[in-house]
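re: that chain from earlier
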Amino acid sequence: MAERNVVLGVTGSIAAYKAVDLASKLTQAGVSVRTVMTESATKLVTPASFRAITGRPVSTDLFELTNPYAIEHVSLAEVADLLLIAPATANVIAKIAVGIADDLLTCTALATRAPILVAPAMHSAMWENPATQANVETLRQRGIAFVGPAEGRLASGGVGLGRFAPVPEIVGEVFAILGRGGDLAGKRIVISAGGTREPIDPIRFVGNRSSGKMGFALAEAARDRGALVSLICGATSAPRPSGITVVEVETTAAMRDAVGSACANADALIMAAAVADYAPASPTAGKLKKTEKERSLRLERTPDILVGLDGPRVRVGFAAETDALVDNARRKLIEKHLDLIVANRIGAAESPFGSDVNRVVLIDADTDQELPRLAKRELADRILDRVVGFLDRS
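^ sequence. v structure.
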């Protein structure tokens, strides 16, 4: 993603200190963050913290002559690709709703034509107050997006709705908005991730080592390029991506149904999930007792999700092989009518399961492209580059 400019507005919520971590995460992701703080916010966290994290001056005063963005209050409004107000107090939400512009942040909010994302943080009674809810509804009707608040323990010691949304969730929403002009803008992409679990009894199951990291990297990369992503998620150990529609499943049959439903109006399908090939033929309703020295387990084939699937114009599959990597993967490419297959070489020496890196061969009808060992996020973009090419030709 080319450098994007996010203007981060920080208000006088006790959660202001969490905005430092938010600014750090956005900066690490390559976003140029320019911070605007209300006077109340500076009583809770210092501007120096944001300057150290972002490497940019922090604006606090509409009439501060030393700041290049202060005198011309529209300058920040014009440079912003996104105005992110996080945390947002009930007071600032109310002022923006009625068009009050009495400080640099509210002036910027009134002047910008960039999208605005608001992350509220306040006591639950303030959030639930009819006045606040009316102001939020007014802003939503104007196209302003909200993330959070979350439910949990509040600074007051009580528990309720009003906590600052988790930073990864806010970051995900930021990238979903920034990606609206990307090369996958408006395209509906279905991605499966993780492994499936086939029950033996209510406690035990047949499964695999998939962490879901590759599918999640693909989902995040597609989101950041503007796609409308539906993530069909099996069993995983990785945190769920934000800014994405997630459907949780467990078995292969459930994944087949979810993928089929999501693909009804999809442009592309990427099957990154490690789907179980076999399932216990007769799972028991009660827990199996350890009464026998040996026990046999009869397995039967699970349904092939890609066979007979209608809908997506572009279909990408994955193949994990211990030998004859290209030959076996190319056979699957033909049998499953895929446009592209991502061939993983697995074994004791190099296994992609649980790792943040992978080395694959991209195989289509005409070519085999062996890629070097890459971070899964970089590999995701390489795969999506091919998907964009297929979509442009179809």
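The chain has a mean pLDDT of 88.
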